[in-house]
Design brief:
Blueprint: H1 12-19, H2 32-35, E1 43-47, E2 53-55, E3 63-64, H3 70-80, H4 116-125, H5 131-146, H6 154-163, H7 165-177, H8 184-195, E4 198-199, H9 201-212, H10 227-240, H11 246-252, E5 257-258, E6 264-269, E7 273-278, H12 289-302
Antiparallel strand pairs: 1-2, 1-7, 3-4, 5-6, 6-7
Helix pairs in contact: 3-4, 3-10, 4-7, 4-8, 5-8, 6-8, 7-8
Length: about 300
């Protein structure tokens, strides 16, 4: 194996050019805004411990965070419940799709916080007396990870809430099991707003770095969550972050990550850096085709594989 490249010198635009000819995959059709996403969008970004952020072309193009929000929702729920969220949601991989209508047998808990059921529950566990307060707390918490004020795309949030039939089914199922303490529709509405938060590749890389660096944002120097919470979240990203493809991901890429139907992948290389690779066309597991290839290349070039 050749020596690992310096992340401060890696040519991200050259890597982007290598990814662009990859034409496989399809955009998500779950909501109109994702179906209309630009299939040629392709961006790579790195956020380093010294606070520097490097990106390719398209690195500042905004998109909705979608499922890449889930690690950060888990972190906020852990922070706001003093860790008690671990009693409310499992941490085991499922081997099933992200929106599978399935809870743990015997407990009624979601299997882990990286699937939709788990994220709906973690949204309901953050501080707030009503949906608006919880949504505001989530946006403020995500902004702390990002190091800048984030905003919600109201059109995306409306579509997520209106068309999220399986999410409504999961929320009602958790209510029936006694797992979810708030109204099902309220829980789904907060989750819809969390998924509709606008980020770009640069911002998402900073968020990944904040987890990778023990909960401290490398750009602002401010602590978003405790080191223990950051460690626990990154561990669950490693085992569950790419759904039923998590085992293959960790073998090939070896970096804890979270995929998203917007085509974004956020990576947290513990103690090293955060990264994001973004491109909307998805494979059969709901993971960006270019993103997966780009992440594997970054891991190889920078020597990021945790078992390497």
């Amino acid at each position: 194996m050749s020596a690992a490249a310096d992340p401060r010198e890696l040519d991200l635009d050259a890597l982007r050019q290598r990814l662009l000819p990859e034409s496989g995959g399809e955009r998500s059709t779950s909501i109109p805004e994702l179906a209309d996403a630009d299939p040629d969008l392709c961006a790579i970004a790195l956020a380093l411990p010294d606070g520097s952020v490097r990106s390719s072309a398209d690195g500042a193009v905004p998109f909705s965070i979608q499922s890449a929000v889930k690690p950060f929702l888990f972190a906020l729920a852990l922070a706001d419940t003093d860790g008690a969220a671990l009693d409310r949601v499992g941490i085991e991989p499922t081997g099933e799709a992200f929106d599978a209508i399935k809870l743990e047998s015997g407990t009624g808990r979601p299997p882990n916080p990286m699937v939709n059921a788990g994220a709906i529950l973690t949204c309901a566990l953050v501080d707030g007396d009503d949906p608006d307060e919880r949504a505001s707390r989530i946006v403020a918490g995500l902004s702390s990870f990002a190091g800048r004020r984030l905003e919600v795309d109201d059109d995306v949030a409306h579509s997520e809430h209106l068309l999220g039939d399986r999410n409504h089914a999961l929320a009602h199922l958790m209510r029936d099991e006694g797992t979810l303490a708030v109204r099902a529709d309220d829980a789904v509405s907060v989750y819809a707003r969390a998924c509709a938060v606008l980020v770009n590749a640069q911002t998402l890389a900073v968020m990944g770095a904040t987890l990778a660096l023990g909960g401290v944002n490398p750009v602002t120097g401010e602590r978003a969550v405790s080191a223990r919470i950051a460690r626990d979240v990154v561990a669950v990203m490693a085992t569950c972050g790419v759904y039923d493809g998590s085992g293959r991901w960790m073998r090939a890429v070896g970096v804890p990550a979270k995929s998203s139907v917007s085509g974004a992948i956020v990576l947290s290389a513990p103690g090293r850096l955060g990264a994001a690779v973004v491109s909307p066309p998805l494979d059969e597991h709901g993971t960006s085709v270019r993103g997966r290839i780009g992440a594997e290349t970054l891991s190889d070039d920078l020597g990021l594989h945790v078992f390497g």
